Amino acid sequence: MKKLSSAKLFDQFAYALLFFLPLIFLTFLNNSFELPKMMFFELGVLGMLFFYVINLAYMKRPELKIYSVFRKRSVKIAMLVFIVMIFLSTAFSIAPELSFWGSYYRLQGAHSFAYYFLFFLLLVMNFHSKEQWDRAFRSIFVGFFFVLLFAVLQKLGLDFTGFDLEEVSLGRVFSSFGQTNYLAAYILLISFPLLSYVFLNKKKWPLIALLILGFIVLSFTGSRAAMLGLFVGIVFYLILGSVFLWGKKWLLLAAAVFLLPLMSVFYANYFHLENDSLMGRLVVNEYNMRSIDSRLLVWKSSLEMIKDLGFTGNGLETFSLALGPYMSPSVFEFERLNTLPDRAHNSFLQLFSDFGIVGPVFYLFVFIYIFGLGISRLRKLNKRKKILVIGILSTFLSLFVNNLFSFSVTVHFAFSAFLLAFLLFLLSEKTVKKSIVMNKVIVLVISFFVFFSAILQNVFPLVADSYARSGDLQTATLLHPKQNYYGYALSSVYLKLGEFESALYELDRVGAFVSEQDVYYYFLKGKIYHEQCVADGVYCDEAEDSYMRAFQLSPNYPPVLLNWGIFHIETDDCELGLSKLNQYLDIVPDSYKSPGTEKHRLFYKHNPYFDTVFDYTDKCSP
After folding, report:
1. Which residue, 504, 419, 485, is CA-closest to 35?
2. Helix/strand/coil (H, E, C) string of 331-396?
3. Which candidate among 131, 223, 519, 576 keeps its CA 20 to 30 Å from the CA of 419?
């Protein structure tokens, strides 16, 4: 009886995780969207692990169950390479702690990937029946409906998040994701399995209505990469369906769908549709080209960085640290002057940066292997499995296309792991069982791991972020010291209060976390010494050295040159100060020189304090 209840609790934890993960966000947190999703996911996986172990403990003869496809040596090698790749990337990272724990806003370090991998394994070892997978997809589709409903309400002006984000004012929705492109990629992940269930279910209309609603909300996001991924996925779905299921007549429909994006682009540009219209994002104009031009500049800088990479890459979550010396100042035509790109917005360039040459090679191998394995076995499968496999493969292809221009976050990785486990279930001929030893010591150790991990790595970070939201950064740092955001913010607060020793203490704690490779670490250290130099005439050389080191790490990061110039002007060296400020103005886009234009408006909207530079140049005017 206990075995049965723990097995059921495992399933219920999995269903709840899949239902709530896309929906959850907490407005009382500083990081309201991604942090609660990651923490909820980890808690769900820990719960699944706990009940799986309890289930094994109460079996008279504990058995490890796994799909027969795992007998293949290639599958075992791929899993081993994945583990080794994550380990090496973290061990040889330019900032190992950051690569392990992940950055504040993305949280995609080795620690998170360990949970994705564990989630995948737990599904593989426990979901062995059609009924389990059907219930899981039922939970996913119900959650999908609520995400879409929230997006529609948001489009109608009812935004429960309380955040006045620019995307909403432009008519683009993000629902419970906090970012429009994240929502769009999630819709891609769910749409093709949903389409497959449309073909399989007798009661089709509720699923058809849900699918249509998903396509409508996708258009509300304005994500061109996701729209392209959707069309590519549909064409692929129809081609495979025509070859393995329905006959060649469906190829005509595939051709029509293939032509639809081209016709849409022509229509939008020929009639000069408005930017905020359904197809206005397809118009080639200055506004719509901003994000494309920005990506092109980041890609160009990334390629320069990749030329100097070692075998293992820079490490997970270190992109913004590594890009600094190679970043083109032209990127600030489209981005705020105080920001640095933290993602390449291209899966291959990101993999190069994170893992070196091994990353994209492994990614391509797994991608091709999965498609090769899936297509090679399609003829042997029954009709139901064929339709589902085609749906999963189409999902992976559409996400692949989308991520040539974007990147994945928590929900995307978690659902990709789920879909991969489901695909292997469909392609396996049977379940393989192997007897294992499960004693009370193992149960006790895993139980303690689950308990302390949940408290220290999930509950504490959530509580810490709520304190950060309320402005209590000291408590936030105490509860969750493995986040550079809190340390930087607290150091800045101490700097404003004139408590320089405390500011340096907190900053040095961050410096250890980022291995002193972050331009912002030296930039903020320069500001602290700068203030001490101006106030007491001490640490002037240290301020100069810190600004110099920040400049070396990122020579085209505008705030460094601006504050470096201000430092020299405030210490009565106008010649050197003006030299730095002129360098600053050289790398800043010329948009500020064109009042009345859209570029000028956007520039000052993103950089409202830009004119500060002229206040200081005036101080040195004759």
Report:
1. 485
2. HHHCCCCCCCCCCCCCHHHHHHHHHCCHHHHHHHHHHHHHHHHHHHHHHHCCHHHHHHHHHHHHHH
3. 223
pLDDT at position 277 over 80: no
Task: State how far the Cα of 118 lies from the Cα of 113, in Å rounded to an integer.
Answer: 8
pLDDT band at 335 (very low <50, low <70, confident <90, very high): confident
What contacts 325, CB < 8 A, 6 or more positions away?
305, 552, 553, 554, 555
Overall average pLDDT of the 406-418 stretch: 97
CA dihedral over 242, 246, 249, 254, signed as positive or negative: negative
Q: Are 110 and 90 in contact (CB under 8 A)?
A: yes
418-462 pLDDT, tens digit per residue, is 999 999 999 998 888 888 887 788 889 999 999 999 999 999 999
Q: What is the 3 state secondary structure string of 546-596?
A: HHHHHHHHCCCCHHHHHHHHHHHHHCCCHHHHHHHHHHHHHHCCHHHHCCC
The single residue listed with the structure tokens 């692990």 is 49
For the whole model, what pTM was predicted?
A: 0.94
**Rounded Cα gap, residues 226 and 149, in angstroms:** 19
Structure token digits, residue 589: 């886009």
At 563, list the tokens: 């504050």
- Residue 393 tokens read as 């493969």
Compute the average pLDDT of residues 550-555: 96
How far is residue 196's CA from residue 218's CA, in Å, rounded to a whole number?
A: 19
Q: How far apart are CA 427 and CA 379, in angstroms?
A: 11
Host H or E run for residue 81: helix 73-91
Q: Are 300 and 556 in contact (CB under 8 A)?
A: no
Closest to 350 measured CA to CA, from 409, 396, 414: 409
Q: Is 445 exposed, middle or buried (0-12, 13-18, 19+ CB in 10 A)?
A: exposed
Q: How far apart are CA 521 and CA 514, in angstroms?
A: 8
Structure-token pair, residue 41? 């996911």
CA-CA distance, 54 to 48, in Å (whole number)? 10
Closest CA to 25 of 190, 163, 184: 163
CA–CA gap between residue 369 and residue 424 (Å, rounded):
12
**Pick from 122, 214, 131: nearest CA to 414:** 122
Is residue 104 pLDDT above 50, yes or no?
Answer: yes
